[in-house]
Design a protein that fits this description.
The chain has 510 residues and is of the alpha/beta class. It folds into two domains: 371 residues, 3-Layer(aba) Sandwich (Rossmann fold); 136 residues, ANL, C-terminal domain (GMP Synthetase, Chain A, domain 3, 2-Layer Sandwich), CATH 3.30.300.30. Helix content is 38%, strand content 23%. It contains 17 helices and 21 strands. The strands form four sheets. It has a twelve-stranded mixed beta sheet, sandwiched between helices. The chain has a four-stranded mixed beta sheet with strand order 2-1-5-4. A hairpin with a 2-residue loop joins strand 9 and strand 10.
């Protein structure tokens, strides 16, 4: 029976792929249609009336009349929406909000998720990913078995309120199409538990059950937490790798952080070339991208999912009034901050992610980091994509495995030189840590010419300083911050010493 069901999904995905091909060939038409729909839909909202949506006919008028927004500028509107007010940023009442990591003034951000945004962005993006997976893997059998889900939890905004909030993964699972539910494990009462540590232990127990384990075909999640989960499973089962527990496993869908620093760990946990990896760009604000070909190391930008895109060039990131450009004006190889307008009422909203285009026909992207996660204390402009690649290459050459790391500047003191301090937690340490330190510095110079220039003859920057941390330090620190869970990630870079000093102080107090 399950094979028949899988064949039916396969047939359906073939039909859907024709629509994806149509959009691939007409991205600007798709974006123009979405732009007009968004403006027309919201012209009678409070935000739409305030910014003259009724008179806007072109993207240029939109850029002229609506300033670029951040969370702090939209927060007063969102707060009122959560209290139940209608027609504020989007028509009607919005009852769902995805909870994301906070700004400097807030512990958390609450991102509106209208019903149309949920259906035409988040869920549609999931269907797009599955369509491409079945196109790329014709013998895929995901829907002949079970798929393991890792998600956060959700809560009611206040007693008696219709407003709910939670991790976007939790909102998606709570409101998923009924057709998907029979293919998911574990039970939702486990998925939605508040306590991450007890939840992951219960999930590991379910994952090892003899009636469940042979059925598991796919899992999705941030690499950091997926690896933590896999280790719990192996500890519970006594097995040496995940394919001894899940012998029919096929596909790992990942996102949230660059997978490169985790590849060696995942290769040991999933030791088979038959396991396929699919990267997606599914943020709290929307489902923006998915891998297009198995061999790709980039993602297709989804231009037909209720989101109108703009992009801020790197030299504008920290301007008071940054100038954003439309999709048709982007160039391959340049860094941009992503700006979105959505069918949930986020207008010209800077979500904080940075990306570069690897192709414009079709439009394909790589995530390079965050607008607030970089090191540029000395003009070196180091991005997360640079450090991820450097540490992955250094590990490969020296047979080491890094589980987590974070980087901060070392500021000039008196006549001393500046530099970068790396806090690194190894899963497998290199034999010679000093040689690894030097190699990592060399790799970063090869990847980033600005860093190389500042390192020339140690004139401006000294060789990076690597500090080894005991195993488990980052997870203990995250727990102390209340940041355990699938949606939370260790901050890679900062242009200040906030995280590095906090971790070092945490270690002294532990």
């Amino acid at each position: 029976m399950r094979n028949i069901v899988n064949s039916a999904f396969n047939w359906y995905y073939k039909l859907r792929y024709k629509e994806i091909e149509r959009i691939l060939n007409n991205p600007h038409t798709a974006q123009a249609e979405i732009f007009q729909t968004l403006i027309s839909s919201a012209k009678n909202t409070e935000f739409g009336r305030l910014h003259g949506f009724g008179s806007i006919r072109t993207p240029k008028q939109f850029r002229d009349q609506v300033p670029v927004q951040n969370y702090d500028s939209l927060k007063p509107y969102i707060q009122r929406m959560m209290e139940g007010e209608k027609d504020i940023l989007w028509p009607g009442r919005v009852e769902m909000y995805s909870k994301s990591s906070g700004t400097t003034s807030d512990k958390s951000k609450f991102i509106p998720v209208s019903q149309v945004n949920f259906d035409e962005c988040h869920i549609k993006g999931t269907w797009d990913t599955m369509t491409i997976i079945y196109d790329q893997i014709p013998d895929c059998t995901i829907f002949s078995g079970k798929n393991f889900i890792m998600a956060g939890n959700h809560s009611v905004y206040k007693p008696g309120s219709k407003t709910i909030y939670g991790d976007v993964s939790a909102l998606m699972i709570k409101n998923m199409p009924k057709i998907a539910k029979p293919f998911l494990e574990p039970e939702l009462d486990i998925v939605f538990r508040d306590d991450w540590e007890s939840k992951i232990a219960m999930m590991a127990e379910v994952a090892c059950r003899p009636d469940i384990a042979p059925m598991i075909k796919m899992i999705g999640g941030v690499p950091t937490w997926t690896i933590v989960f896999f280790r719990h499973i192996l500890e519970h089962s006594g097995k040496s790798n995940m394919l001894e527990v899940w012998p029919n496993f096929e596909t790992y869908i990942h996102g949230g952080v660059n997978i490169e620093p985790y590849r060696e760990q995942l290769a040991q946990l999933l030791p088979s070339e038959q396991v396929k990896y699919f990267e997606v760009y599914n943020a709290s604000e929307g489902y923006f991208g998915t891998k297009l070909k198995l061999e790709d190391d980039d993602m297709l930008l989804l231009v037909n999912n209720g989101v109108y895109y703009e992009f801020i060039p790197m030299d504008q990131w920290h301007e008071d009034e940054p100038k954003a450009i439309p999709l048709e004006d982007v160039e391959v190889g340049k860094n941009y901050a992503l700006v979105i307008s959505t069918n949930a009422g986020l207008w010209r909203y800077v979500i904080g992610d940075t990306l570069t285009f690897t192709s414009i026909n079709p439009y394909k992207i790589k995530i390079t980091g965050r607008t607030k996660q970089f090191v540029n204390a000395f003009g070196e402009e180091v991005m997360v994509s640079n450090t991820d690649k450097a540490i992955a290459e250094a590990c490969q050459e020296m047979n080491a495995i890094v589980s987590e790391y974070t980087v901060a500047p070392i500021y000039f003191k008196n006549s001393g030189k500046g530099g970068h301090e790396w806090l690194v937690e190894f899963e497998k340490e290199p034999i010679d840590i000093k040689a690894f330190n030097a190699l990592l510095d060399q790799k970063l110079q090869m990847i980033n010419s600005d860093y190389e220039a500042k390192r020339y003859k140690d004139m401006a920057l000294q060789e990076l300083m690597l500090r080894r941390l005991p195993k488990g330090t980052f997870m203990s620190w995250m727990k102390q911050r209340g940041k355990l869970g699938n949606q939370n990630k260790v901050p890679r870079l900062a242009n200040n010493r906030q995280y590095v000093d906090d971790i070092l102080n945490f270690m002294l107090e532990a």
